[in-house]
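Anyone up for a design puzzle?
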């Protein structure tokens, strides 16, 4: 297992947004977290990646206790996250976005750009090209990010995550706003990356598209884990019920 949580909990003024959630993410898999709106999925991701402090429980990454490490330390351990809404630098080109460092979210745009132009390493550029080619967006290399479609922005986000060499890529709704054909392309790329040694933990609502690609599925409802298993879990009565009740 690359990631394990043990009774992870997070409370907001009495609301149990995350209530003793224990999950295991196998290496080189696509593990999916689903559940109706407000069931705690984003809170889970935020707590695992250090954006929220846990109120209870433990997070282990690659066998190491990383509970309540700050986000940059978790990043250094090899876990990177993408956000519900992609945040590229719109006026910059795709390749410039690829070369933007991710490790220091607090760094100013100006500082980041200067650092990049000064520190440009040819192998970083080469790596960025290779990744863009793998993702089939190399034709967009010199386009400004603002001209990309929703799906292309998601691919750019995956590209940026791949630039970091993170072992585990955590994604919040990577298919939101993506046309179905491109969504399938994205998922096929993700599966190829799993075969190549990466691990993905994904929160997603579009089950019709993503379920077939999932190796393992966790279902949340009201801050708790209500089911886990293979793709067939969505047929369990308790899962149907939590979706109907939402
Ligand atoms: N920063 C916060 N402060 C207070 N309450 C919060 C905060 N973040 C989340 N919550 C609450 O925690 C609960 C779980 O929210 P969360 O966003 O984790 O659900 P979700 O499953 O990701 O929903 P969605 O699918 O709509 O994104 C909700 O009741 C939400 O209102």
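Challenge accepted. My sequence:
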């Amino acid at each position: 297992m690359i990631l394990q949580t043990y009774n992870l909990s997070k409370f907001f003024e009495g609301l149990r947004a995350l209530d003793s959630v224990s999950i295991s993410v196998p290496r080189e898999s696509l593990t999916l977290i689903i559940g109706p709106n407000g069931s705690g999925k984003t809170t889970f991701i935020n707590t695992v990646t250090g954006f929220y402090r846990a109120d209870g429980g433990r997070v282990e990454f690659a066998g190491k206790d990383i509970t309540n490490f700050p986000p940059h330390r978790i990043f250094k351990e090899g876990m990177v996250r993408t956000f519900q809404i992609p945040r590229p630098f719109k006026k910059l080109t795709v390749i410039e976005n690829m070369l933007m460092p991710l490790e220091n979210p607090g760094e100013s745009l100006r500082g980041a750009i200067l650092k990049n132009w000064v520190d440009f390493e040819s192998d970083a550029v080469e790596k960025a090209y290779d990744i863009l080619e793998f993702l089939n967006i190399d034709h967009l290399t010199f386009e400004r990010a603002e001209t990309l479609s929703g799906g292309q922005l998601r691919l750019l986000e995956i590209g940026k995550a791949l630039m970091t060499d993170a072992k585990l890529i955590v994604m919040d709704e990577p298919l939101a706003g993506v046309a179905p054909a491109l969504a399938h392309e994205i998922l096929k790329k993700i599966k190829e990356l799993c075969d190549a040694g990466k691990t993905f933990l994904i929160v997603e609502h579009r089950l019709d598209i993503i379920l077939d690609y999932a190796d393992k599925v966790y279902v949340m409802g009201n801050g708790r884990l209500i089911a886990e298993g293979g793709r067939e879990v969505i047929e369990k009565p308790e899962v149907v019920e939590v979706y109907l009740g939402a």
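A detail worth pointing out: The mean pLDDT is 89.
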